[in-house]
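Journal club prep — side note

Before the paper discussion, L.F. wants everyone to see what a predicted structure for a comparable chain looks like in C-alpha cell form. Sequence:
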Amino acid sequence: GIEVVTGVLAGEASRLNEKFICWHKKNRPFVHVKLATSLDGRISLGKSMSTSLSGEAALTRVHEMRHEHDAILVGGNTAFTDNPSLTDRSDKKRRRPLVRVILDNRLRIPFESTLVATAAETPTLVVSSSNDSEKITRLRDLGVDVVETDARDLTAVLAALRERQLQSVLVEGGTGVAGAFRDAGLIDKLTLMMSPRIIGGHDAPLAFGGSGVKSIEEAALLKDVTVERRGDDIEVTGYY
C-alpha cells in the first residue's frame, strides 16, 4: 500500500555517475573532450606552434577536470610541440594515478621529453603503429607502456584503456585528435574554455579538424549546456 515514486532527479543522478554508467552501457571509457580556444574557435596562432590561451582561473578549472578523470589523452604533435607534463595539479588526493596517453603513430616522442623522462614515476601510455622496434624497446625500458596498434583506430585505443581499467579519459588533443573523436561519434562530453580573443587568419588551426559534417542536421546539438565565467575566460560544457 506504499506509493513508490521513481525517476526522481534521474538526470542529475546519471550525471553524478556518468563515467560509471558509460563504462557499463557502452563498454568503454567515458570520453570528455576539452579544448582551449579563442572566441573565433582557434586553438593556437599556427600549426605546430604552442600557444597559451587560458587565464589562471581557467587553468585551475582544467586541473579540477584532470582530477575527475582516470586518464588524459593528447596527440603526438601536441606531445612533440608543447613538451607537456600532463599532470593533475589540483592538489586533491587521487583515487589512482592519472595515466597519460599519447597517440603517436610516427613515434616522434623524444626520449628526453618530460613525458618519457617521468614515465617511471607517472603512468605513461604511447599508442603507435610504428615498426621502429628499437625505439619501442627503449621506451619500454624507460617505463613507457607502448600499445602497438593504429592510433587512428580510436575504438581500439579506448579498448586498450578499458583493459587497464580506466573508466574515463580527458582528451586535450589538438585539431586532428578532437576531429577524429567527433567523426567517430565517441565524444560523451565537450568543454570549450574560450578566451575573449580573436586570432583570425588562414594559418591558425580551428578547434575541430577531421571530415566534418555535410549538413547541419549531422551537426549534433549539445544537450544540458552550461556556461560559466572562469576569470576572463568562458567555460561552455555540453553533452552529446
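L.F.'s comment for the group: The first helix runs from residue 10 to 16. Keep this in mind when we get to the figures.
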